[in-house]
Amino acid sequence: xxxxxxxxxxxxxxxxxxxxxxxxxxxxxxxxxxxxxxxxxxxxxxxxxxxxxxxxxxxxxxxxxxxxxxxxxxxxxxxxxxxxxxxxxxxxxxxxxxxxxxxxxxxxxxxxxxxxxxxxxxxxxxxxxxxxxxxxxxxxxxxxxxxxxxxxxxxxxxxxxxxxxxxxxx
Length: 170
What we know:
Layout: H1 2-14, H2 16-27, H3 31-57, H4 67-95, H5 97-101, H6 104-126, H7 137-159, H8 163-166
């Protein structure tokens, strides 16, 4: 695994993308906070769609809403937020790949994100024919796992910047 990390770091460090991203972030006034804001807005849209739907399946919120209608309205927002999240984070990753690829909190975020994305797509798929009367216990458990996964993903994303303090050995 360490060899793969080293190979990836070397690949990105030698790529024109690293220097281009670093130059953009350094030289375009206000770009880092703008991209971070876009990333956070993407997170709000993503979580606002999938978690709201999960809360409906759990009968915690929007109980008077038809789950199928909610799914129809919210799924496109979820899909639209994914590229926003990716492209707003990519310049930071490309500019400093070593910071992320050697960060254990980044590993946690990527693992939880991968699992949660899979669970989310599966939930959207499973709920294609759901009605208020047909929400099974397993679908509710699935919605609970998706909600917890997105919360963990966001928390890990926030803590990436603080990994130096968490794992400080000095």
